[in-house]
Please model this.
Amino acid sequence: MAKVTIYDIAREAGVGIGTVSRVLNNHTSVTPETRKRVKEVARRLNYQPHTYAQRLARRQSETISAIIPFFTNYFFIEVLQGVQDRISQLGYDLVLYGVNNVDQVETHLSRALQRGKVDGILFFSMKLPEKIVARLRDAKLPMVLVDTVSPDFDSISVANVEGAYAATTHLLELGHRSVGMVNAQLVSTPALERLQGYRHALESHGITYSEGLVKTGSSNKQDGFNREAGYEAMEEFIEMGPDMPRAFFVSSDIQAMGAIAALTESGLRVPEDVAIVGFDDIELARHMRLTTMRQPMYQMGVLAIERLVARMSNPEMEILHTTFSPTLIVRESCGALRSSEGMPSVKSKQR
Amino acid sequence: MAKVTIYDIAREAGVGIGTVSRVLNNHTSVTPETRKRVKEVARRLNYQPHTYAQRLARRQSETISAIIPFFTNYFFIEVLQGVQDRISQLGYDLVLYGVNNVDQVETHLSRALQRGKVDGILFFSMKLPEKIVARLRDAKLPMVLVDTVSPDFDSISVANVEGAYAATTHLLELGHRSVGMVNAQLVSTPALERLQGYRHALESHGITYSEGLVKTGSSNKQDGFNREAGYEAMEEFIEMGPDMPRAFFVSSDIQAMGAIAALTESGLRVPEDVAIVGFDDIELARHMRLTTMRQPMYQMGVLAIERLVARMSNPEMEILHTTFSPTLIVRESCGALRSSEGMPSVKSKQR
DNA sequence: CTGAAAGCGCTAACAC
DNA sequence: GTGTTAGCGCTTTCAG
Model:
């Protein structure tokens, strides 16, 4: 590999390195003529600037890091696409710190905090370790939170209350008077907020909220946002027998998968016997024809980068919290669509 | 943020910067005493080395980049976990270039090739642009291919022939004499190899291979590895009427999803009427109870990094191609499990 | 406009 | 052992 430096160019073009630097960085005040000559030589020599020499001299890294839990799966992958697209348009590099378990959060954050390494951080879907907050603040490193919130930093998230309200309302407007909820553990903020939205929807339709109609299941992996928990919760509902609601708002699509499995195994059909609305719109949801609340993941990623860049260029900017409204995606699981085909599930046809 | 440099430390500790550098880099030949003192001061001043100054001086980036198609979704996410875990153990940074469409491949590759930027590249699941090969070779930048192959570079991939053979054999051993295949476009190497394995399996069981029993569908997005193509292919089979095979090897899980939908919509049940075996073991497969060939994705990621690091430290090393054997995961879609046992519980199906 | 020179912060070769 | 001195390759004053 040619190890061409600006000195080589300077020599060849018969100018000083300062001038070379100027034309390469599109600075003003260089004669069109010399500019042309330098550019010409640079191309001929196949010059490439050395990334780290630039970063050192410019005192900025032109890179952004993302600390992201791998286990959120589809959500993160979609958001990441938005992040990636925007970031590369802006000419930044993305260094990824994927977190497989909570212990890695601190390690990775520390690395990202290494002096000069990154110009900004995106922190995803996890609660920010308290001990880090202080370090972060006096490191003065711009950071924006995605899918999680803290008063100290900018954030991009989803309107959970509103989304749950819309989901529940949809079921109500379909004529259901008894709507249950399969929720995740209340230690999780999204779970809490979605419960709120569910409850509000009920009440503003003149229906009394009842604790007995909200179940969580015991599997607490990922705060209950998992398939088993959904399965277990629905099993409990099924045990209620005839009193069981015929419509459910489930706090995540992945739980809805479990819930539907439980239903199917008990000979209950979706949506003929039971209507389901989920939350997230993971890829699975489309295949399963699940009605659900979609989060604008790609846009969230794009905005996250834009917000971060904005803060980088103006650290004194007021802290901004943006929430996106999820959209109701009507498919078949809620029964709103009249369909002769039913749900294309392997199991639903086996019985 | 404290902008502490080794000069500050040197002054405070009453030594030269050389000495400071030595103790910080755990070099030999420093009196235990001064070593202790320097470390002490460094900690007190909360010193952090400047990443890019180090990289410039050391002439190595301690970072690896991955160029990876986002659209392979689940596969890539799993592999990435292995990559991430191993990479951070080794103390490297991962810069990610996610590709959303083919045009980005070259852009991203060029960026990764920027002088000094990375010590090595991981290139995933896509065919390497010819024009790049040359540049890559004389950039002398170590690169390993994952899930794709080229004679010029190390690679980690999956034994497609073998996997397809195993899948087909499984169906054959279940008693099926007529086994069809839903394949992807033959322009894709994996598709070609999987066809080979299918054919070999047939022939070594004394069954004549027939072209009429292999269908692809017309949707050519991602070389036919998509849901619609699977759906279309299966529709064609269904039109065969009574001559239609009752068992199918499908070249990817995502196609299998489409195929199953087509079957279900025609009133055919899986596995009672038709047996299906897929390939990949994406997350969806578990939920759909799809029998399939699992690729050891996490390990592939780990090995990819190890291979890359090996090559970085020894560029003259002979080029190595490693193929992993996929494992047959028996679930319900193939009919091997007796349905009289009832539906397995959700939990028992978890990995 | 442009050349020379002084850093950016660290590593490493070289004397003492 | 340890201080000194060159770089690493580029950006950015500062004179002219």
Q: What stands out?
A: The domain at 160-295+328-350 of chain A is CATH 3.40.50.2300 (Rossmann fold). Chain A has 13 helices and twelve strands.
